[in-house]
Design brief:
The protein is α+β, with helices and mostly antiparallel strands. The protein is built from 6 helices and 9 strands.
């Protein structure tokens, strides 16, 4: 059977709730690459995403040859800044990001290193050398499905921090996480679907 993270974890990759709710996120493995800057204009971001997909598909084809296939998952991102105000102000040049693609648990760090070396030999993209194997265990998170433009996320995130978290005795923990279920090159901005996720802890 082909592993598909969207089927294995439907509550995390195909949620229906348009209001904030709590979910438990298990330990997950990813290919990951980090950078800084506006995702709409920074060449570094474009190269990073291309590098991620190059390594992910190299891993998929190598794994399939051993009899274990998987569907390459959607693009995901961790976002943060020393000054959280840059997000509400949409000061995108100051954003820091770590882009991710989910992996099945049988893929190892050594597999990722080998796949990166193979991909780098085929593609002229230095960002491939920066792709890493990452393990995340986010645990309890507040999560919501956002439908619409990425630039329309601000009111949803403001509600999280000013209404939902205080009302439920929670505080944010770790980096903001997004899962991109639509392709902005092929989908109208008002139809884009994005999972917004924030690890949380009990306040105090």
């Amino acid at each position: 059977m082909t592993y598909d993270v969207k089927r294995a974890h439907q509550d995390l990759y195909a949620p229906k709730n348009r209001e904030w709710a709590l979910v438990e996120v298990p330990e997950q493995r990813f290919v990951a690459v980090s950078g800084t800057g506006n995702p709409n204009t920074a060449p570094e971001y474009t190269r990073a995403v291309e590098a991620l997909y190059a390594v992910a598909y190299t891993l998929k084809f190598a794994s399939k040859r051993t009899g274990r296939d998987f569907v390459v998952g959607p693009l995901e991102g961790l976002w943060w800044s020393p000054d959280p105000a840059v997000f509400t102000a949409r000061a995108k040049d100051e954003w820091r990001w770590r882009m991710l693609i989910s992996l099945p648990d049988w893929i190892t760090t050594e597999d990722v290193k080998e796949a990166a070396a193979t991909a780098l030999a085929k593609k002229n993209n230095p960002a491939i050398a920066s792709v890493e194997h990452e393990t995340l265990h986010e645990g309890t998170c507040a999560q919501v499905l956002h439908v619409g433009s990425y630039d329309d996320e601000t009111p949803v995130l403001t509600e999280l921090h000013t209404v939902y978290l205080p009302a439920n005795g929670l505080t944010e923990r770790d980096r903001h996480h997004e899962v991109y279920l639509g392709d902005p090159r092929r989908t109208a901005p008002d139809k884009l679907k994005t999972v917004l996720r924030q690890p949380v802890s009990p306040r105090g």
